[in-house]
Amino acid sequence: MRAHLRAPVAAACLAAAGAAQLGCRPDLGEPRLDCAARGAADAGPPEVWIEPEAPLDQAPAVLRVHLRVPGAAGTIDPERLALVRGPLGPAQLGQIARAEISAALSERIVPALIWQDKASPGHVVLAPSVPLAPGELYSVGSGEPRFAATLETLADDPLPLLGRVWPPLEASASPTVAVWCGTAQLPALASPAQLAPSGPVGLLATGAFADGFPRACLRFEPAALPAEPPAEGPFVPPPLLVDEAGSAIGRLDPRPLSADEPAVETAALGCAPDEVGFGPGCALVQDDRLVARTPDAALFWSVRLAGAAAGGGELDLARGTGPGEPLLVFPLPADSEIELVVQSLDAAGRAGRGQVAAHTLPPMPHVVLSEVLANPNGPEPAQEWVELYNDGLAHALLAGYVLGDAGGETALPAAVLPPGAYALLVGESYDPASDLDPAPAPGTLLLRVPKVGKNGLSNDGEPLVLRDEAGHAVSRFPAKPKPKPGVSVVRTSPKAPDEVDGSFVLAPEGPTPGAPNAAEQAD
Fold it and tell me: Does residue 39 register a pLDDT over 70?
């Protein structure tokens, strides 16, 4: 046995009915093998080990489980093999053996790719296609031969997990193009790698694109273009990322790559007079940001200030967009000449590169609809409110702003909202001291109007739009998700785009009037 690689497998026969268990944790004592599994016993007890190399009670969140019954007679049926959260008893092993999985057991099964190692008879590999939870017990159950092995994941993994950002997790794309990103810059890498099982061979290289940017990302780059279309997969990446010295530096999101549908050509947009070309899209240049319209296709973007390779700018954006989803490029220097390097990657693996030169606008306000309490615990419509936030660099003069709902428009009173400040639009009878709903944070600006909305806000939710003094829609808020009494709907980030459903969620910790939303994500 290889040290720290395979589980201890000294077998002991038990005169007991039902399925046997092969224990693989030191605290479980001597491993056991049911004498009824005579063929497997004759071949030798099953061997179980994990990749990357580690004891079974110190398993990483991303791994592959290897199983083998030694000897020519030993085989493991991949169709009757599963990874399950928690322990497995004889009854559950029987379900796996009969391929009759109950609803309760089905909920515990971890999705995985399972394949036979062609170079090693009787050797089967199980690769979970999602990261495992930290500090949890898992069981590998085999129906033929019937046995189970346990493993326990690390409670605190010192290695970072690089999440897969391309292809989109919910969409089909070329299985030979993949990008993973973390939060820290990676060293220069060009490590040989192969996608499994029997997938393309290539390199894991720093950066989403050939220029090595963004440096917090990693791409799989096929060694050569195949003469025939690549296999559709699914494939999984290596579980461990190592540097050129062989030291482990991270783990790769194991969600599989596959091409279920053919990739379509990405059609570039035509730009309006007030927009600039932005790769295959178009962009409106503002002060500290640029808002890009994107084509009707999923794309992965890398955007940085020219000269950033020499430390010339903070911007190093790496983000995917769905079809037609806007892309916010932030932060940019206000009232300045800028030059951006824009790169894009489509579902077929086609990369584009261009540059954008523009002059950003002077500092300006950016008022957004941040949170809505339409169904308060207190009396309605008196305790309803709409929260505004100034995400810009300049004071917002609210005279002339209006809030539109399904019934009409509500004019905002004359007031000044400083950068980084919150305001609550409330009715005249709103009581900030009510003990039925959270009170506004100290210093919150209250904008009192005769009533919020034509007849108050609908408890089922309704679309809202904020327009500035020129009549431009500067922020929108959707009708969904539908809130329960006392629960508000929040924007996940001040910069979260209006057009994306995921930008708005039910407040996870209750309303936060005049304060950052609990669901806010880092920009």
Answer: no
Of 42-46, 114-118, 220-224, 246-250, the least confident: 42-46
pTM across the whole model = 0.78
First CA to last CA distance, the chain:
49
| 276-359 and 367-506 in the same fold | yes
What SS3 string covers 280-323?
A: CEEEEECCCCEEEECCCCCEEEEEEECCHHHCCCCCEEEEEECC
Query: CATH fold of 276-359, please?
Result: Immunoglobulin-like (2.60.40)
Matching residue, tokens 């694109």: 209
Question: Domain extents for the chain?
Answer: 13-152, 161-252, 276-359, 367-506
DSSP code, position 260: -
Q: CATH number of the domain at 367-506, out of 1.10.10, 3.40.50, 3.30.70, 2.60.40?
A: 2.60.40
Lowest-confidence region among 24-28, 122-126, 374-378, 422-426 = 24-28
Whether pLDDT at 96 is above 90? yes
Q: Which residue has 């990008």 as its token pair?
A: 179
Please name the residues in contact with 210: beta carbons below 8 A apart, sequence gap of 6 or more: 351
Contacts of 421 (CB under 8 A, 6+ apart): 389, 390, 443, 445
Buried b (16+ CB within 10 A) or exposed e, 31-60: bbbbebbeebbebbbbbbbbbbebbbbebb
CATH of 13-152 among 1.10.1660, 2.60.40, 2.30.30, 3.30.460: 2.60.40
Radius of gyration of the chain (CA): 28
| Mean pLDDT value of segment 85-103 | 95
